[in-house]
UniProtKB/TrEMBL annotation:
<dbReference type="InterPro" id="IPR010075">
    <property type="entry name" value="PRibForGlyAmidine_synth_PurQ"/>
</dbReference>
<keyword id="KW-0436">Ligase</keyword>
<dbReference type="GO" id="GO:0004642">
    <property type="term" value="F:phosphoribosylformylglycinamidine synthase activity"/>
</dbReference>
<feature type="active site">
    <location>
        <position position="204"/>
    </location>
</feature>
<dbReference type="Pfam" id="PF13507">
    <property type="entry name" value="GATase_5"/>
</dbReference>
<dbReference type="InterPro" id="IPR029062">
    <property type="entry name" value="Class_I_gatase-like"/>
</dbReference>
<keyword id="KW-0547">Nucleotide-binding</keyword>
<comment type="function">
    <text>Part of the phosphoribosylformylglycinamidine synthase complex involved in the purines biosynthetic pathway. Catalyzes the ATP-dependent conversion of formylglycinamide ribonucleotide (FGAR) and glutamine to yield formylglycinamidine ribonucleotide (FGAM) and glutamate. The FGAM synthase complex is composed of three subunits. PurQ produces an ammonia molecule by converting glutamine to glutamate. PurL transfers the ammonia molecule to FGAR to form FGAM in an ATP-dependent manner.</text>
</comment>
<dbReference type="GO" id="GO:0004359">
    <property type="term" value="F:glutaminase activity"/>
</dbReference>
<keyword id="KW-0067">ATP-binding</keyword>
<dbReference type="GO" id="GO:0006189">
    <property type="term" value="P:'de novo' IMP biosynthetic process"/>
</dbReference>
<protein>
    <recommendedName>
        <fullName>Phosphoribosylformylglycinamidine synthase subunit PurQ</fullName>
        <ecNumber>6.3.5.3</ecNumber>
        <ecNumber>3.5.1.2</ecNumber>
    </recommendedName>
</protein>
<feature type="active site" description="Nucleophile">
    <location>
        <position position="85"/>
    </location>
</feature>
<keyword id="KW-0963">Cytoplasm</keyword>
<comment type="subunit">
    <text>Part of the FGAM synthase complex composed of 1 PurL, 1 PurQ and 2 PurS subunits.</text>
</comment>
<feature type="active site">
    <location>
        <position position="202"/>
    </location>
</feature>
<keyword id="KW-0378">Hydrolase</keyword>
Length: 225
């Protein structure tokens, strides 16, 4: 099992993702986007960062790179794909998931720990947790506000594709616990197939006991096993 962590110009969490996966015993390698997707890829991470300086909209430029066509095909075939932060933005811009990530309600870059409620525990990304469990993970973004049209949001809920919601420490989903103004406090969603997921918080920054005071992100990354 080798996970490909795709590096675009301006990605800056690709090494962190490889290290976190490594720590969990999952073989992972960085791949420069122009080199294309290796044929034998068993999983894909779109890592965080500022691809192309967030020019136009965060993720909009990387979404148009040819490698994304191969990633869409792989996702359609059921290869696990995880988009983290800028990777979530790229995932939305390339239609791997519905919705869009736009400027935070605060109009500021926010770097802090947040709480997330696990909305579904029956997916590969969350089967290490209980439904309703509260995780603590860091966010670091300026464009993390999940926005989606009313009908598309209704579909998302009807199809049970909301994976995580921002909440308080007790699991209450409130406006106060919503760091960026996301519709429905949505922090992470599934794509058309459950093997595709994106989230704004950083599980790879909450996976190594030596560098993080909490390792709640491990369960999400373990999905690749
Ligand atoms: N940590 C990241 O991936 C940064 C996300 C993104 N470029 C933003 O600021 O919105």
């Amino acid at each position: 099992m080798t996970v490909t962590v795709v590096q675009f110009g301006g990605s800056n969490c690709d090494r962190d993702a490889v290290r976190a996966l490594d720590h969990l015993g999952i073989d992972a390698e960085r791949r420069w986007f122009e080199d294309g997707l290796p044929e034998d890829t068993d999983g894909i991470v779109l890592p965080g960062g500022f691809s192309y300086g967030d020019y136009l909209r965060a993720g909009a430029m990387a979404a148009r790179a040819p490698i994304m066509e191969s990633i869409r095909t792989a996702a359609g075939d059921g290869t696990p794909v995880l988009g983290i932060c800028n990777g979530a933005q790229i995932g939305a811009e390339s239609r791997l998931v519905d919705g869009a990530f736009t400027t935070n309600a605060s109009a500021r870059f926010q770097c802090e720990h947040v709480h997330l409620r696990v909305e579904r525990a029956d997916t590969p990304w969350t089967d290490a947790y209980e439904a309703g469990e509260v995780l603590r993970l860091p966010i670091a973004h300026g464009e993390g506000r999940f926005e989606i049209g009313e009908d598309a949001y209704a579909d998302l809920e009807a199809d049970d594709r909301v994976l995580f919601r921002y909440c308080d420490a007790d699991g209450n989903v409130t406006d106060e616990a919503n760091p960026n103004g996301s519709t429905g406090n949505v922090a992470g969603v599934l794509g058309e197939r459950e093997a595709t997921a994106v989230l704004m918080p950083h599980p790879e920054r909450a996976a190594l006991p030596d560098v993080a005071d909490c390792t709640d992100g491990q369960g999400i990354l373990r999905a690749f096993r």
